[in-house]
Amino acid sequence: MKEDKANTPQNSESAPNFVLRDGALRSATWRSEGEYGPLFNTRITKLYRDEDGNPRETATLNSKDLLQVSELARETHREVLMRRRAHSQEKQKSETRDEQRDFAEDWHDEESSRQDIARERFKEERKPSRGARRAKPRDRAAR
Length: 143
Description:
By secondary structure, the protein is of the alpha+beta class. About 40% of the residues lie in helices and about 25% in strands.
């Protein structure tokens, strides 16, 4: 099975993200961004030539094509998983870089010491939210 990048124009929005081929079978996969990461949609077709010699493709498959289709689907699934993992790793790296940058900015502030920053963070965490009632302190002497 080979990846067919030559037949996919890079500047077209409708072009698949990647294409895998096995003989006359073709697996074209498109990527779109979802709320929780990339989504992949795949179409498996069979390429053939009509009576006039024009290239065509169809989604109708013979029973003898099914084993090839299953192997092509397995290879496509592996490629999709690899791309999802790469996206996840890149996302984790960028989040780590952002956290490190924020941490470096906080701790290397020339006007504030580490204790001042910790104290300010503690105060921010303890501030009651608007509209929230504070509980009355218990009278410990009444026990």
